[in-house]
Amino acid sequence: FLIQCRPVIKISEHFFIFLSARQIELEECKRTTQLKKFTMPQIPVSDVENPFSETSEYLESFGKILNSLSTESGRLHKEQTELSSTLMTLPPSLMLWANSEEEIEPMLNKFGEGIGKVNEGMEEMVELKEEMFNESIKEYQRYVTTVKSVLKHRDNLQVEKNFYTASVLNKQKDLEKLEASEPGKSFATFFGKSPAQVKEEKMSKLQQEITTLSNHGERAGDALVVASAAVRSDIERWNINKEKDCRALFSNLSSAHIDFYNKSIAVWQDLITSIDRD
User: Fold this and answer.
1) How far is CA 8 from the centre of its chain?
2) What are the pLDDT digits (tens) for 207-249?
3) I need a surface site. Which of 191, 230, 241, 243 has the fewest CB within 10 A?
């Protein structure tokens, strides 16, 4: 299948983990993802810097083109299949007619044979087009859907990184305000702690939170860099592969039609020559 040759899938270990994971592992992953969505504020994608916005727009447009091609190809396949079924009924009818018309029996039999040969060629072409063209379009549709999911995952990493970055900045502002403030009374002072000690504990807690959030942000940033580089590299390779695939696809499709029509013309020319000779 074409989709097995696509770099964005072949270089992604997550894809193979998904294929090999047990159901219980997938359910656990789903619960973890839902929990993260619940605990992390949802930042609009429009507010996130996205270097792949043009790619996303192209995929959306390309996907519509593929859907249109798939629809029209399916319609043509249905019409050609119905035509082939109709042609299959003609040779037996011509044979019955020939049995009652001795004078034109040879011509009718040859005409029926010609229709049978043309129909066989059409069936081969329809089968070849279904295998070669329609399946290739379906594979590209699946691939476009996969790339959209990959880009969405990259955007989620960007959102996650921005979330941690904003959280660190907010905590640092709180820490600066706390450092500049005078120690005051709080509920903790009723338990024997001095205002200065309470302030120190609050500052220590904020520093720990800043460190934790910074570590999470660094990991999210590293994951974002890796994901962005992988997607960018794959899109470049995909554009090259796509051009080659499209050239080969339409060239082979054109050749299949030319071959079919040449064979059909040869059948009818032989039929005309034979009829004229008789």
Assistant:
1) 10
2) 999 999 999 999 999 988 988 888 888 888 888 888 888 888 8
3) 191
